[in-house]
Design brief:
Order of helices and strands: HHHHHHHHEEE
Number of helices: 8
Largest sheet: 3 strands, antiparallel
Distance between the termini: 45 Å
Number of strands: 3
Shape: globular
Number of domains: 1
Strand content: 5-15%
């Protein structure tokens, strides 16, 4: 990300839908027994069959032998550096993960993406804003979504701990509301 690219992005009001950092991580993290496999939060999101596959030695060997497997760690580091550079330059950041593919457990990987964005140097508040308000603006739905304001659609999670203290606290979900209605 050089100054010329940043200048052009600003001139054209171009945004970045996050760097999908968790996608990069998913390309190598299962090449060996990954700590996340033992995480109860991770396990709730995957089917028993998927979890068994991810834990299998055969799958780990397949991931380790994959095309460009040796480069993914450095590519993740570069993606994090680029994200920080663009954010610091004032480029609007949205949120994306590319979840749903093998090993990219929906729900868990969105939380993981938030964590990787913070590891890249963004603050927890920046990351939460990127995933909510900015995402709604980028999608053109900010009239109705993206922030908690009277008259807007109210989807929210009530957390047991403050994510501004530690972004991993987004996992302390106590209740969920969709359109202002509590989900049981």
């Amino acid at each position: 990300m050089d100054d010329e690219l940043i200048s052009k992005m600003k001139a054209h009001n171009t945004f970045l839908v996050a760097a999908t950092l968790s996608r990069e991580l998913s390309t190598y993290v299962f090449s060996e027994p990954a700590a996340m496999l033992a995480d109860a939060f991770f396990q709730r999101g995957g089917s028993p069959q998927t979890l068994a596959t991810l834990k299998s030695r055969a799958y780990q060997e397949k991931v380790a032998a994959g095309m460009d497997a040796k480069h993914w760690r450095e590519w993740l580091a570069m993606a994090q550096k680029n994200l920080k550079t663009l954010s610091d330059a004032g480029i609007k950041i949205g949120f994306g993960t590319d979840t749903g593919m093998q090993g990219r457990i929906q729900g868990y990987f969105e939380h993981l993406e938030l964590e990787l964005m913070v590891e890249a140097g963004l603050s927890p508040m920046q990351v939460i804003t990127d995933a909510t308000r900015n995402a709604a603006e980028i999608l053109g739905v900010s009239k109705d979504l993206g922030v908690l304001e009277q008259g807007k659609w109210a989807d929210l999670r009530v957390l047991g701990k403050n994510p501004l203290d530690n972004i991993r606290n987004t996992r302390t979900i106590e209740s969920v509301y969709i359109a202002g209605n509590k989900v049981n």
